Amino acid sequence: MTVEQDATQQSVITDENIENFEKLLGVGVDYTPEHILKCFEASYWVKKENNELDQIDPYVEAKNQLLQLMVSSQMKAQRYFEITSPFNNTCIACRGTGEIYKFKRKTVKVNCHICANKKKIKVQCRSCKGTGRFKKRWIGGGGIDVTCRTCQGSGEVTVKCIECRGKGKKRKIVPDHEIKSTTPCKHCDQLGFTKNIPMVVRKKKKEYRPVNPVLSANLADKIKNQIVEDLPHIE
Ligand SMILES: [Zn+2]
Ligand SMILES: [Zn+2]
Ligand SMILES: [Zn+2]
Hints:
The protein is α+β, with helices and mostly antiparallel strands and 235 residues long. The chain has helices spanning 15-25, 33-49, 57-78, 217-226; strands at residues 99-111, 120-124, 133-137, 143-147, 156-160, 169-184, 227-233.
């Protein structure tokens, strides 16, 4: 199985991962990421109980690796990720991932939101101020209504779209699926769950708290639908 296949949870468990997890957590091939994460949580408590927390690092690393794969494959498929944490007392700051992710960015071409790729837009005719008519006054009184020649009476003229300068498309920088860097969550020590409940929100000094971005499914869909062409990656 490879990461490329699809976005289902199972697909992110590669043979290499399985080997890691089997070694560390004793899980089987038919285990889902949820099982593995549950095993990780249980292992943590066992290690803690036995005063063996100095051995926990490889477990954390394997757990992080699995989550990164899940997150990345979800980002690839749907442009947002949503990890359903199986932990008790899931950490609020990282939503159970244990890490804060920064994604690579890429430039894509999207249809201009003003002209929707029509390249031209209709604006009010300046000659007649949108009325389509002119009142011609005669000297000495009286007058007639004439049709505006600029807009042929429609009140509108078609011009090059100002927003995209007539290109119909615009470049947009969006998060890519590849993870650029990760920051360990300080609130849970990378575990994804906390021992102390509930996490107290202290209102003292303004503290920089990195949190995982929450892009709604709706917004992600919107971006996805807008994209007309993927451009080469930029970092
Ligand atoms: Zn956390
Ligand atoms: Zn006009
Ligand atoms: Zn435009």
